[in-house]
Automatic annotation (TrEMBL):
InterPro entries: AAA+_ATPase (IPR003593), ABC_transporter-like_ATP-bd (IPR003439), ABC_transporter-like_CS (IPR017871), P-loop_NTPase (IPR027417). It comes from Streptomyces variabilis. Residues 5-241 form the ABC transporter domain. The keyword Transferase does not apply. This is ABC transporter ATP-binding protein. The keyword Phosphoprotein does not apply. SUPFAM superfamilies: P-loop containing nucleoside triphosphate hydrolases (SSF52540).
Length: 334
């Protein structure tokens, strides 16, 4: 099972520029979470801070008893081995075949024999659907295949936490849909804790158990997906609706006068329909995170906003009705 990631009061700046401040959230063990936000809100910086590649000025990132901000470097280095990273561009070595790219972490960080490395690499290549392409160079394959190769490389050390930085960038809608299903299938197979940074609303709507959003140097919200998907926060409504009217501008946040003028001429946004979360492909086991998440969410449901409470109860009632309809009939047969 994946490992819980606890973020407490994290603040990060570059010089005088504050990126975000006092960010606190918990990535539940084994669940899939998404972090949304407009361009330039520090989502990638947040990922790098979780793994200890960047050092925030304040706060803690607690993983299995290790603080990725303040603990000794040797402890951070060891804890980093729990992570798998999928970068925006795949971050593949152009002169190496896909096989050698995917094998690189095993050769770098373990003392496994080449026969064992080959077995592991080919297993991961099969998981991401790249069998037959392992001898190709990154420049000889499509962007979508490079993404999947990057994901395979992130998996070879059996990570318990997987971070995906805009896995959909550069992909068309069809390939994005395949990637979304692949991420859910992966969670069903290895039960890892996953955090996906994305701008893509289709991934945000269909993949995660939990959702958060960064804006104006702060965490707007983080929690069960229904909280953000039913939120009436102006920045959330604007982002999910893909509208120009709202706090997000082209180059920076809009000033108060602009927002007031927009408010006078803006019609209310249509209520959003929460689409069902993706399920694992046929033949795969059910996601173990689903039962854990339900228990966790029902414990906190009375503290959630009314719209989120209603959406959660409707979802679980629909799931229960579906399970009843599809359950096999007992008895029947001698």
């Amino acid at each position: 099972m994946g490992i819980e990631v606890v973020v407490e009061g994290l603040t990060k700046s570059f010089g005088k520029q504050n990126i975000w401040r006092d960010v606190s959230l918990t990535l539940p063990a084994g669940e899939v979470s998404v972090m949304l936000g407009p361009s330039g809100t520090g989502k990638t910086v947040f990922l790098k801070s979780l793994i200890g590649l960047l050092k925030p000025e304040k706060g803690r990132v607690l993983i299995d008893g290790v603080d990725m901000v303040r603990s000794p470097e040797k402890d951070i280095y060891e804890t980093r081995k729990l992570f798998g990273l999928m970068f925006q561009d795949g971050a593949l070595f152009g002169s190496l075949s896909l096989f050698d790219n995917i094998a690189f972490p095993l050769r770098e960080h373990t003392r496994k024999k080449e026969s064992e490395i080959r077995r592991i690499v080919m297993e991961r290549i099969e998981v991401v659907g790249l069998l037959g392409a392992e001898g190709k160079l990154p420049g000889e394959i499509s962007g979508g295949m490079r993404k999947r190769a990057g994901l395979a490389r992130a998996l070879v050390l059996d990570p318990q936490i997987i971070l995906c930085d805009e896995p959909d960038s550069g992909l068309d809608p069809v390939r994005t849909a395949y990637l979304s299903q692949l991420l859910i299938d992966l969670n069903a197979q290895i039960d890892a804790t996953m955090l996906i940074v994305t701008h893509n609303l289709d991934i945000a709507a269909t993949v995660p158990d939990n959702m958060g959003m960064l804006f104006r140097r702060e965490l707007v919200t983080f929690g069960p997906r229904e909280v953000l998907l039913t939120s009436d926060e102006p920045v959330v409504s604007q982002f999910l609706g893909g509208r120009r009217e709202g706090p997000i501008g082209m180059s920076e946040e809009k000033d108060a006068a602009t927002l007031a003028a927009e408010a006078d001429r803006t019609t209310p946004a249509a209520s959003r329909v929460i689409v069902p979360q993706l399920e694992p492909s046929p033949g795969l086991p059910p996601r173990r995170a689903v039962a854990r998440r339900r228990e966790r969410v029902m414990r906190m449901i009375d503290a959630l906003p009314p719209a989120a409470r209603s959406a959660i109860r409707e979802t679980y009632a629909r799931d229960a009705a579906t399970a009843t309809v599809t359950a096999p009939v007992a008895g029947g047969g001698a």
